[in-house]
Amino acid sequence: FFFFQEMEKLIACAHKRPDALCRLICFPWAGGGTFQLAQWGKLFSDSIEVFCIRLPGRESRFKEPFAEDMTSIINEVTNVLLKELKEKPFAFFGHSFGSYVSFAIALHLKEKHGLEPIHLFISGGHAPHSEGFLALKRSLLHDAKDEEVLATLQNLGGIPYELMHNQDILKQIVLTCKKDIKVLQTFLFEKAEMDIPFSCDITCFNGSDDEVLDVKGWQELTSGDTSFYELPGGHFYLLEPSNQSFLTKHITRCIENAGL
């Protein structure tokens, strides 16, 4: 029972598909909850079950303290999901902050458990050993004034129009965002020479108007294939229904071609 509770806390699964061939595990952006990505479940066929990771400090975990560092996130996700990850193939999708969390967890699973996603889908993320990522870690957003963080999020298109005037929710989004960025600063990835961590394929998606530097660096992290797609829009291009439809179709094709 305890285990079931832990699962319920960590995972949002809007469409349960116990017979699916593969699980797509989604990791939201900084400040984000599970609502948007969990809804993807209904856009996929029966062969794919979508789990969305819910980190502490938000939604039904509102009263829990935020994660202090990347290690505690890695440990929680691994401890709760290891049995699931061993029982059937899985792929990861992460957007922005979520792309770094999914990478950190994939790295841990590979090093400690010899497990690897069949595909890593990265959205709006710099390569984790790149200048762009280091610059992001140096950004002082987690110490910035709330107004600055809010302005940054609004510029990126990260706040739904209907929430613009809800001060309580805005305050919570800003706080969550700051805490997530603080977590990012605790993640260190040193790419050793010749040490390629993954063998799975990696696909990188970006908005055409988004400033993502060093996206090509992802191809140094796997011996598998790496592909890159630009979709119309800014940092939150993936919230556009037409882009969402492209993403879900493309992800389905990649997973089905992985020959499960």
UniProtKB/TrEMBL annotation:
This protein's record includes keyword Lipid biosynthesis: yes
Q: Name one Pfam family in it.
A: Thioesterase
What terms describe the molecular function in GO for this protein? fatty acyl-[ACP] hydrolase activity
Q: What is its EC number?
A: 3.1.2.14
Top-level EC class = hydrolase
Q: Which reaction does it catalyse?
A: (9Z)-octadecenoyl-[ACP] + H2O = (9Z)-octadecenoate + holo-[ACP] + H(+)
Q: Does Lipid biosynthesis count among this protein's keywords?
A: yes
Ordered alphabetically, the record's keywords are: Fatty acid biosynthesis, Fatty acid metabolism, Hydrolase, Lipid biosynthesis, Lipid metabolism
Output one GO BP term. Answer: medium-chain fatty acid biosynthetic process
Which InterPro entries is this protein grouped with? AB_hydrolase_fold, TEII, Thioesterase
Record domain Thioesterase: where: 23-252
The family annotation for this protein states: Belongs to the thioesterase family.
Q: What is this protein called?
A: S-acyl fatty acid synthase thioesterase, medium chain
Q: Which organism is it from?
A: Lanius ludovicianus
Q: Which gene encodes it?
A: Sast
